[in-house]
Write a structure and sequence with these properties.
This protein is mostly helical and about 200 residues long. It has eight helices and three strands; from the N terminus they run αααααααβββα. It has a three-stranded antiparallel β-sheet with strand order 1-2-3. α2 packs antiparallel against α3 and α4 runs antiparallel to α5. It is elongated, with a radius of gyration of 27 Å. The two termini are about 40 Å apart. About 5% of the residues have low confidence.
Length: about 200
């Protein structure tokens, strides 16, 4: 194992990550306060100050701005080291995102089917990134507890919102009003227009 890798592993596992993250949040709050203070000082420079006060205020603002920039650099370095360069941690974070999206999907409030489609798209993308098969985790037959009318399930339709718009199509990515779905089914003799394939992998 190289010295560089050993130093990296020691640095990565040698801190309490949650505590470090809390510290970084505190740093960001301090930067916010400092920048608001600088903003007030800028306002003073536009007022009636004598030359000595103006020069002094400008120097203080320059020093405060530089210090805030250094704090931002430290925060950026922390985020880069612990969240970008670590494949292990990135995997954990992405897995957490996948299960949070699953929770959102299954807790959908039926208000707007476009929300559901967006979460499913995001879920599929996260699964692609971490090498999961979305169909192993997301069961389209039981996507929501609100029942889909039996006569449109075959289209296929996976969910219907309170405005009667449906999430449908072979890739679970189309949106149609339920009346349009029924019209197309009627025109096709009650059969789906395409083979009933449920593909979440695309």
């Amino acid at each position: 194992m190289s010295n560089l890798h050993s130093e990296y592993m020691e640095a990565f596992f040698g801190v309490e990550l949650y505590k470090k993250f809390q510290d970084v949040l505190g740093d960001l709050e301090n930067i916010e306060i400092d920048m608001k203070g600088i903003s007030k000082e800028v306002g003073r420079l536009g007022g009636e100050l004598d030359k000595e006060d103006r020069i002094g205020t400008a120097k203080e603002m320059r020093a405060a701005t530089y210090e805030s920039a250094q704090q931002v650099k430290d925060v950026r370095s922390f985020l880069d080291f612990y969240f970008s360069q670590s494949q292990e941690l990135s995997q954990v974070i992405l897995e957490r995102d996948a299960y949070m999206l699953l929770y959102q999907i299954y807790q959908w409030d039926f208000n707007d089917v476009r929300d559901l489609r967006g979460w499913i798209r995001d879920f599929k993308e996260v699964c692609k990134t971490i090498g999961y098969r979305p169909e192993d985790l997301l069961k389209l037959d039981n996507l929501t507890w609100h029942p889909v009318p039996e006569d449109v399930k075959i289209y296929p339709v996976y969910a219907v919102d309170k405005h009667d718009y449906c999430l449908c199509g072979g890739d679970c990515d189309d949106i149609m009003h339920i009346d349009e779905v029924r019209e197309e089914l009627e025109e096709n003799g009650g059969k789906p227009l395409k083979p009933h394939k449920r593909n979440l992998s695309k």
